[in-house]
């Protein structure tokens, strides 16, 4: 088993918290540095570099490169965690058990969004702070179930797992996506179109560390429009509808025919909120 983590200078402290917890387990860790410049050297972590593209950070390419490095190192199960996410005490075990029973499934565990200043340590501390996001299933530990067709839209790339063989067969994320948004929605749509099962895994808890952000994510507006248009051309619908509607309500974009486009420059109020809202695919 190997854990693949994307991280950058902005999330280095979060990633270090994650790496410290993973060091307690006999698991290989591949960290993918997404920024310009030389990546930091981190004890116990194989760090590879995928610098930004013309349109921003290359999350899709980073996950693909991390998976390739993990498989080349002999990993039979891949666990993907974003830098923000702490692995709960049972995450690796639950993913390993589910992967052994469901070789042809992509596996997703619950995600708790932690409040500001809360960094759990130890089983009791994690348990006391476990409040999974209500939008997704939260099964009892040890239980799994297949996602319904409509639940594929709830796939979040911040915590998921699969066997290396399934990853090779299905292929990775589409690297045409750069910057924020839509690459994970595209991946979920690819899974559904190929009849690859998405399966919810009880007890595989990840804990998203707090960071301030904006709601909606104004800093990603152009990325959302660009990547959303790429997704629509492929799949026939717009992803991230919640964000698009929020931008439209603020007067920043409008629907022209079947395309969302920027309006004339408008003054908008940007409010900082907690990370439990702005990191959700689709808003």
Automatic annotation (TrEMBL):
Source organism's superkingdom?
A: Bacteria
- Which is a Pfam family this sequence falls into? Glyco_transf_7C
Concerning InterPro entries, the annotation shows: Galactosyl_T_C, Glyco_trans_2-like, Nucleotide-diphossugar_trans
- Domain Galactosyltransferase C-terminal: from-to ranges: 151-211
Q: In which pathway does it act?
A: Cell wall biogenesis; cell wall polysaccharide biosynthesis
Q: Could you tell me which residue ranges the Glycosyltransferase 2-like domain spans?
A: 44-126
Q: Which UniProt keywords apply?
A: Glycosyltransferase, Transferase
MF (Gene Ontology)? glycosyltransferase activity
Is Transferase tagged as a keyword?
Answer: yes
Q: Which PANTHER family match?
A: GALACTOFURANOSYLTRANSFERASE GLFT2, RHAMNOSYLTRANSFERASE WBBL
The text of the family note is: Belongs to the glycosyltransferase 2 family.
Protein name, UniProt field: Glycosyltransferase
Organism in which the protein naturally occurs: Subtercola boreus
């Amino acid at each position: 088993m190997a854990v693949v983590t994307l991280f950058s200078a902005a999330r280095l402290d979060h990633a270090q918290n994650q790496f410290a917890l993973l060091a307690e387990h006999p698991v290989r860790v591949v960290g993918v540095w997404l920024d310009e410049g030389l990546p930091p050297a981190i004890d116990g972590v194989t760090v590879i570099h995928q610098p930004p593209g013309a349109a921003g950070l290359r999350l899709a390419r980073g996950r693909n490169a991390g998976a390739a490095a993990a498989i080349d190192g002999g990993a039979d199960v891949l666990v993907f965690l974003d830098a923000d996410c702490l692995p709960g005490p049972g995450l690796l075990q639950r993913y390993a058990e589910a992967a052994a029973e469901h070789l042809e499934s992509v596996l997703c565990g619950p995600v708790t969004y932690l409040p500001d200043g809360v960094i759990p340590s130890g089983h009791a501390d994690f348990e006391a702070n476990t409040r999974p996001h209500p939008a997704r299933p939260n099964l009892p530990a040890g239980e799994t179930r297949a996602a319904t067709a409509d639940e594929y839209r709830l796939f979040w790339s911040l915590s998921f797992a699969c066997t290396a063989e399934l990853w090779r067969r299905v292929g990775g994320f589409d690297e045409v996506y750069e910057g924020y948004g839509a690459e994970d929605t595209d991946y979920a749509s690819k899974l559904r179109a190929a009849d690859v099962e998405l399966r919810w895994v009880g007890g595989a808890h990840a804990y998203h560390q707090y960071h301030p952000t904006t709601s909606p994510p104004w800093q990603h507006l152009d990325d959302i429009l660009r990547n959303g248009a790429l997704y629509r051309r492929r799949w026939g619908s717009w992803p991230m509808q919640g964000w698009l509607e929020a931008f439209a309500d603020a007067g920043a974009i409008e629907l022209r025919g079947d395309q969302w486009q920027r309006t004339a420059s408008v003054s908008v109020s940007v409010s900082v909120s907690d990370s439990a809202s702005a990191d959700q695919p689709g808003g």
